[in-house]
Write a structure and sequence with these properties.
It contains 6 helices and 3 strands. By secondary structure, the protein is an alpha+beta fold.
Length: 104
């Protein structure tokens, strides 16, 4: 993917500007911090219902949070049946970290 452009940086920082979204991204770093699922979290991600329960928000709020993180390319969504599973997009997160380290 390469370096993040200014629009991507702004989108990522806006997505991380809400404490719960920032917390969710941290939780997703360790899939074991959620209840066991049929598939390992590192393979398919964490089901939205588990994210919702941990964040103690409504389903629609959890969906909005994840949509914002997905638009910023910070998470990847995988549909399994009727359920959405989310995992971190480590490539984008590494590029964001590199941009921050270089003084943006």
């Amino acid at each position: 993917m390469g370096e993040l452009n200014d629009d991507q940086l702004v989108s990522a920082f806006k997505a991380l500007g809400h404490p719960t979204r920032l917390e969710i991204l941290g939780w997703l770093k360790d899939g074991d911090s959620f209840p066991p699922q049929d598939r390992p979290a590192e393979e398919a991600g964490v089901c939205l219902k588990h994210i919702q329960a941990r964040a103690e928000v409504s389903q629609s709020t959890a969906s909005q949070f994840m949509a914002t993180l997905q638009r910023a390319d910070l998470v990847i969504c995988t549909r399994i049946g009727q359920f959405s599973h989310y995992r971190r997009n480590e490539q984008t997160i590494a590029e964001l970290s590199k941009a921050i380290g270089s003084g943006v």
